[in-house]
Design goal:
- The structure is a single chain.
- The chain has 113 residues and is mostly beta strands.
- It contains 1 helix and 7 strands.
- The chain has one helix at residues 95-99; strands at 19-22, 37-43, 60-66, 72-76, 78-81, 88-91, 108-112.
- The chain has a 4-stranded antiparallel sheet with strand order 4-3-2-7, with no helix packed on it.
- A hairpin with a 5-residue loop joins strand 3 and strand 4.
Length: 113
């Protein structure tokens, strides 16, 4: 992911999401999100997934769940853009989300399928 500078109290929503990503498969085609759960977290420091199994140290956590029909059934901070077969997701943050972030630190993020 690219470096992004966040402003406390700003929202990153439909017109200006935090990021938009098209996931790709091994053949470089859009990854089909059907039957997938996509999660992302933002942390000040990476943590061992065996130690922090619930991502309790994450300042921001988001989830997208897409069912077998290719319909997003859960969009909690992560949103499917277009059809599931397009493989495109977007992360949005509210002003409240960014207001609570620590200032002057770098955040580490990941995306997990």
């Amino acid at each position: 992911m690219a470096n992004v500078i966040l402003t406390q109290g700003d929202s990153y929503a439909i017109r200006r999401p935090l990021y938009t990503i098209t996931l790709i498969d091994d053949a470089l085609a859009p990854f089909d999100l059907t039957n997938c759960t996509v999660r992302t977290t933002f942390k000040i420091a990476p943590t061992d997934p065996l130690t922090d199994t619930t991502d309790s140290t994450a300042a921001i956590a988001a989830t997208l769940i897409v069912n077998g029909a290719g319909v997003a059934t859960t969009e909690d901070g992560l949103y499917m853009i277009g059809a599931a077969t397009d493989g495109t997701i977007e992360q949005r943050l509210t002003a409240t989300d960014t207001l609570n972030l620590a200032v002057g630190v770098s955040w580490f993020s990941d995306i997990e399928l």
